[in-house]
Amino acid sequence: MTGRIDQEYQTLKDHSHRWVVERLDEAGIEVGRASRERLNDFIRGQVSQYISQNRVPLSTQDLNQLIRDTLDEVTGFGPLEPLLADERINDILVNGPNQVFVEIAGVLQHARVRFINDEHILRIIRRMLAPLGRRLDEASPMVDARLPDGSRVNAVIPPLALEGPTLSIRKFTGNHLSAKDLIARGSMTEACLDVLVRAVESRRNIIVSGGTGTGKTTMLNLISQYIPREERVLTIEDSAELVLHHPHVVRLETRPANTEGKGRITARDLVINALRMRPDRIILGEVRSGEIIELLQAMNTGHEGSMSTIHANSTRDALVRIETLLAVNGYDASEKAIGRLIGSALDIIIQLVRMPDGRRRVSDVVALAPTADNPYNMDYLYRSEDHEYA
To answer: Are 90 and 172 in contact (CB under 8 A)?
Structure first.
């Protein structure tokens, strides 16, 4: 489709949508209460009437497409509907009306959908946020939220976003990859899985390290399945993504501040509270800030087998990142004392990488074996053939 023809279609879709919304108001039909079948029939009839009255030359195929698009506009999230329905897609990134990208199998690619204009993007964002009670305007130009299906949504609008509204969606799926799936895809070997299972069952404290999109949450989900069934597990996340098929799980989620800037509950608050809830293990979705202090102390004081993830590109980087988080969040101790704390608290680091072709892989599994001179002495329990990418 050429640019001119595509723009004409977007304009037609905009006019058709406005026409249908007006007819819905006149007919007293509430979209939230009407059945899908009734809405489908009504919208099909009204779009066909609009095309006929305005003598728009459309093929049957294009008319059906316009009806589907208008139905998505009225009842769903417009151009995003087919992307949200596509199970292959993990991330949806909207940088502008003509700049929509998706991630499939670890590779970003341009999506064949577009928005009419910036106002169209903003309308869809606000429709997503409305049921959640979240606002997005010039006074609050940035929002992070979770959709009812568990998908994470982040939106930024001007004046912070210089080129117009931007939207990022990390889709939630309850169908996480199994060990068998990861082995079949070459993400790890049977030998690697054996190492990980033994580490979990022997209550080793584990950090899963990796860069963006390397599958840290997937790995945390996977290894958590091997926690003994008789243990009590507490999970702490900013957006609930972990799906533990375990009989005794308590799930906690952080809370952002309200529109008055009050009521924020941080991961650090939840880790402190979790220690009063008699957990056998604490699973922290990601270490980002001051919660690292309480997590390391918990790992050192009777909560062996706890786990988390951290954003780092190598096992050494993960340790440096933890040191930095401790320092910037007020942990007042000497470099030697910090090294001893980390070395005694952490047992295992699982390093994940993303290969040039988009595949994710376990590159290293190391055990911390502190010595008098080196609190970060490492023993390699597993190393992939492609560890040079780490």
So the answer is: no
